[in-house]
C-alpha cells in the first residue's frame, strides 16, 4: 500500500498565508471600527440623556413659575369697584 501525501508547493503556501494575514488585518480594522462605533453611540446616548434632563428641568421651572404666578394672582385683592361697576353688577343681577 502506498501512502499519499498532499504536498503543497511553495507558491500556494505563500498565497494562503497572505490571504490569512489580509483576513486578520481586515478583522482588526473591523474590530477597531466596531469599538469606535460603540463608543460614539454611547457618547450620543449620554448627550441625548443630558439634553432630555435639561428639557425636563426647564419644563419643571416653567410649571413652577406658572404656579407661583397663579398663586400671586389669586392672592391679589380686587380693586374697589366704582359706581359704574356697581351699576353694571346691579343690572346683571
Give a short overview.
Helices cover 82% and strands 0% of the residues. The protein is mostly helical. It has one domain (10-76).
Descriptive account of the structure:
- This protein is mainly alpha-helical and 93 residues long.
- The chain has one domain (10-76).
- The chain is 82% helix and 0% strand.
- It has two helices and no strands.
- It has helices at 10-75, 83-92.
- The longest helix is centred in the middle third of the chain and has 66 residues, at 10-75.
- The protein is rod-shaped and about 115 Å long.
Number of H- or I-type helical stretches: 2
Which range does the strand content fall in?
A: under 5%
Shape: rod-shaped
Helix content: over 70%
Q: Ranges with pLDDT <50 over ≥5 residues?
A: none
> Gyration radius, to the nearest Å?
40 Å
The secondary-structure element order is HH
Q: How far apart, in Å, are the first and last alpha carbons? A: 126 Å
Q: Main beta sheet, described?
A: none
Number of discrete domains = 1
* DSSP E strands, number: 0
Which class best fits the helix and strand makeup?
mainly alpha
The quaternary organization reads as: single chain
Mean pLDDT: 79
Descriptors:
93 residues, mainly alpha, 2 helices, 0% strand
Blueprint of the fold:
Layout lengths: L9 H66 L7 H10 L1
